[in-house]
Write a structure and sequence with these properties.
Helix content: 55-70%
CATH topology of the largest domain: Alpha-lytic protease prodomain-like
Order of helices and strands: HHHHHHHEEHEHEEHE
Strand order of the largest sheet: 1-2-3
CATH superfamily of the largest domain: Cation efflux protein transmembrane domain
Structural class: alpha/beta
Shape: elongated
Low-confidence stretches: none
Oligomer: single chain
């Protein structure tokens, strides 16, 4: 990602977060006043929820600013991963707010106190619902546009907060019309969903830190760009390492004819690296080579037979990197097995034995590769 594009993205995230802070602080203030005056635990906890959202936006801004720091000697790949740490802090705040809300609701359930709703209370809650719906839709849209997980999560959370506020409004109307108080129960429901939201945010952030499969067509698009070079017969083992949102460094293996010389391969690698960076913003730090045999008919036949044997087995996703040495009688290739297979080792052993029995003169090496696509 270019420096200018990164700067624009950061500015958009910060502006949107500031809008979220202002809206949530305003809502939290009105709800807190109404909740205290009406002696309503549900409205008060709804205010706490808005306050935690505002604090989350503050941390998002701080994380974005720190993550945008330029690379230095100590951190040559930049500070982009700070966004993941800030997301963990936000998750912890949301969890704390949820647990605290749950405790207060349980206290009200054990020692109930009658609420005192008014028309003003209903108007404030209704207005908060509308504001949260509009805010959630806007923030989520911006988050998806700039690929910010923090903003997208905040937008979804805001939309869900509107539903929680609606439950508070309904419980208030029920109490005013029937005298039945659902205060503590609604408070527990709000606390439950706040905790659930916090755990989901924490889980997603941990996935980012641990390294997760990149969903969607992104990897496929990069492979298509690589394979668009006429010299390339296939692109395999494409691995991307994330150093923050939209900051990827990767490596890949490409299969080319064994007739290419070092100079031709060097120029090909440079061309591929430039195209991948220009189109996808990914820096390819390593491009390995698989040599495809074009000279020996025996090796061609061997490759065709082994490919047929391997791909006939259920659960085999791909075979690549085939190499055979007719003189030393060595045959090797990489094989990708589906993670869904219960006993992957059993499939591996079966294929290995089948090929070894068919070609007893060859020493077979099969690398069980990782399914990253």
């Amino acid at each position: 990602m270019s420096e200018r594009k990164s700067t624009n993205r950061d500015q958009i995230i910060i502006r949107t977060s500031i809008l979220g802070i202002a809206a949530n602080v305003l809502l939290a203030t009105f709800k807190a006043i109404v909740g205290l005056l009406a002696n309503s635990i549900a409205v008060t906890l709804d205010a706490v929820n808005n306050l935690s959202d505002a604090l989350s936006s503050v941390i998002t801004i701080v994380g974005t600013k720190l993550a945008s720091k330029k690379p230095d000697k100590k951190h040559p790949l930049g500070y982009g991963r700070i966004e993941y740490l800030s997301a963990m802090i936000v998750s912890a705040i949301v969890l704390y707010a949820g647990i605290t809300s749950g405790i207060e609701s349980i206290k009200k359930l054990i020692h109930p106190e009658e609420a005192d709703y008014s028309t003003v209370t209903l108007i404030v809650i209704a207005a908060a619902i509308v504001v949260k719906l509009l805010l959630g839709r806007y923030v989520k849209g911006v988050g998806e546009k700039v690929h910010s997980g923090a903003l997208t999560a905040s937008g979804s959370d805001a939309s869900f907060d509107a539903i929680l506020s609606l439950s508070v409004l309904i419980s208030a109307i029920i109490f005013m019309t029937t005298g039945i108080s659902l205060e503590a129960i609604v408070g527990l429901v709000i606390a439950f969903f706040i905790i659930k939201s916090g755990l989901e945010m924490l889980s997603e952030t941990l996935d980012d830190i641990l390294g997760k499969r990149i969903e969607g067509d992104y990897l496929g698009e990069i492979r298509t760009t690589i394979c668009s070079a006429p010299e390339v017969h296939g692109a395999y083992d494409l691995i991307l390492h994330s150093y923050g949102p939209e900051k990827y460094i990767g490596s890949v293996h490409i299969e080319v004819d064994d007739t290419l010389n070092a100079e031709e391969i060097d120029l090909l690698e440079r061309r591929i690296g430039d195209q991948v960076y220009e189109k996808h913003g990914v820096i390819l730090t390593g491009i390995g080579i698989y040599s495809r045999n074009t000279r020996s008919e025996e090796v061609k036949r061997l490759r065709a037979d082994i490919t047929r044997i391997v791909m006939e087995h259920e659960g085999v996703l791909q075979m690549h990197g085939f190499y055979a040495d007719e003189v030393k009688k060595v045959c090797q290739f990489d094989m990708i097995l589906d993670f869904a297979i219960a006993d992957r080792q059993a499939i591996y052993d079966h294929i290995f034995n089948e090929i070894s029995e068919l070609y007893p003169d060859y020493k077979v090496h099969i690398a069980m590769d990782i399914d990253v696509l």
